[in-house]
Prior knowledge:
By secondary structure, the protein is α/β, with parallel strands linked by helices. It has a single domain, classed as Alpha-Beta Barrel (TIM Barrel). The chain contains nine helices and eight strands. The protein is globular. The protein starts with a helix and ends in a 6-residue tail after the last helix.
Amino acid sequence: xxxxxxxxxxxxxxxxxxxxxxxxxxxxxxxxxxxxxxxxxxxxxxxxxxxxxxxxxxxxxxxxxxxxxxxxxxxxxxxxxxxxxxxxxxxxxxxxxxxxxxxxxxxxxxxxxxxxxxxxxxxxxxxxxxxxxxxxxxxxxxxxxxxxxxxxxxxxxxxxxxxxxxxxxxxxxxxxxxxxxxxxxxxxxxxxxxxxxxxxxxxxxxxxxxxxxxxxxxxxxxxxxxxx
Length: 228
């Protein structure tokens, strides 16, 4: 199938999931994840109307973004090392993968130097997988106030990468847990957090049913990544 056909199929599945959950379709944003994809694929997706793209690695983004159409928006959706924070602050509209107070403090420092405010999401390792980055729910709640006090950061919500499974129903409880954790964070903040970034190619419909406001889709949109 072509990229246009893939996009139409994804949008139809997103709309159906929104209908099942009673959400308006426009409340869920598609982030086109371009890990391993060339600038030409990004340009084609942009021609089809996509404007928000996600990259997993700062180095790949640093090389790719200058070769892509200039009107696009970029989110970092992969793990961020502290030494890559200056480039991340410069390249991305939002960093979705803040997984420690130390990283948040470094982003804040670099955003101060760049005279900008940095929207962030806090990444939660909801399943407690040793191979995954992210906060435990308990530690997130413990450090939430300190991160929120950093003057150059804006916490917009939470993000998670669930375990891979062939049965998306198995990760539904994790998505539900993340939504409930967002509710707890909102109580600490005393204000709403608009973003819940969860759901990828294999499970985005279940994520939408459980309250996702952003889904990060790569393979279902672009096909398998080109071999390098």
